[in-house]
Specification:
Shape: globular
Number of strands: 5
Largest sheet: 5 strands, antiparallel
Helix content: 25-40%
Distance between the termini: 37 Å
Structural class: alpha+beta
Number of helices: 3
Order of helices and strands: HHEEEEEH
Strand order of the largest sheet: 1-2-3-4-5
């Protein structure tokens, strides 16, 4: 049996982030902690080979292909982090943090460095809380 199968979701995310280049690792860990500390019903896992964050609370039944539980997925690039909100279009983003206007409903947040994360932290927390408010419970 592979060691990976024994690791919790949290441990798998930690392991993936620790294997990154140090500057990207720090960036990913900082964004991770902001997301996880914004609401107690946000969990994490590895999805699509990246750290992903999802709603852990009760929800009405839905087709799993609708990805209603998925909040955001990290897209780890060479020197920056792209945070993809698969259903970001449902959020009335008054902060201006979201980029893109994709027809599938995705919205993106780019982080170039730790200073950029700090500058966008309040807005990121706000859109996460707005997303949680919109969960179909």
């Amino acid at each position: 049996m592979k060691k990976e199968n024994k690791l919790t979701d949290h441990e798998q995310v930690t392991e993936l982030i620790q294997k990154l280049d140090p500057s990207l690792s720090d960036l990913a860990e900082t964004v991770r902690q902001i997301i996880l500390n914004t609401h107690n019903e946000i969990g994490e896992q590895i999805k699509w080979n990246s750290p992903a964050f999802y709603y852990t609370g009760e929800m009405k039944p839905f087709d799993p292909r609708e990805y209603k539980r998925d909040i955001a997925v990290m897209n780890l690039r060479k020197n920056k982090l792209l945070l993809v909100f698969p259903s970001g279009a449902i959020i009335n983003d008054l902060t201006g943090i979201f980029e893109g206007d994709y027809t599938d409903g995705r919205r993106l947040v780019n982080f170039s460095d730790l200073k950029d994360v700090k500058a966008k932290e309040k807005a990121l927390r706000r859109v996460l809380k707005e997303w949680i408010k919109l969960v179909d419970r």
